[in-house]
Amino acid sequence: MKRLIHFMGDEWNLRPAGGATGEAYIAQQGEHKIFIKRNSSPFLAVLSAEGIVPKLLWTRRLENGDVITAQKWVSGRELKSPEMSQNRVAKLLSKIHQSEELLHMFMRMGNHPLSPHTLYDELRGKIGEMDIKDPYVMEGIQWLKKHIEGIDVGVKVVCHADVNHNNWIISEDNLYLIDWDGAIVADPALDLAPLLYLYIPKNKWENWLYEYGLNLNVNLQKRLRWYMVAQCVEAILWHWQRQEFHDISRWTDLLSQLFNETEFHLS
User: Which residue intervals define the domain Aminoglycoside phosphotransferase in the entry (predicted)?
Assistant: First the structure.
């Protein structure tokens, strides 16, 4: 923080912008405000150029190697949960997943696509490190192993990997998806699963996916269900580390529903 204040100069007033990393700040000079972040996503320029995030103003590298980015401040708000069913959410996520420039840049940086087997191995490793014997977690990891064959369809895109409604910002007529620190290359179902299961009633999945650009078929259903089970297991582990038992209960309830889910009727 001190280094950043020194870099920006005394004429700027900095205050934390919130977020899990604590690396984001609002810099204000009179009525002028900008969003400052340290070591943000390296493909922020591409995201900005495609209108996925607020406009990138400049990038600077500090003497210690930290990279500082400044983005246009937008006066907006987070989407509310019911708003996630809107067509504009489907269309923006589709635009992101179809971006060849994003994908090529990510791959040029040496990032390897996340396969279902890699994700399974990572979760199993976390369970071993934490020495967790929770029956839901154990059943979840066993279910993932049992159903992993046939999940990898070979389609890989840049996934945001945290499509929570808090990361969708609406400003005037513009919709943005922010906080790209955890982005990975993976099956688009990695993003679609939590968005559909957590926000969209099942009787509206087909229409929402039509706006996104996909048909809901049996293969996609299986992938969505598999990635949602994986997300539930990961979320339970995350909350276990923080002893947040109320949140654990919420995710175990969803996991139980997924275990008992059958393929629903397609029109």
Answer: 43-214
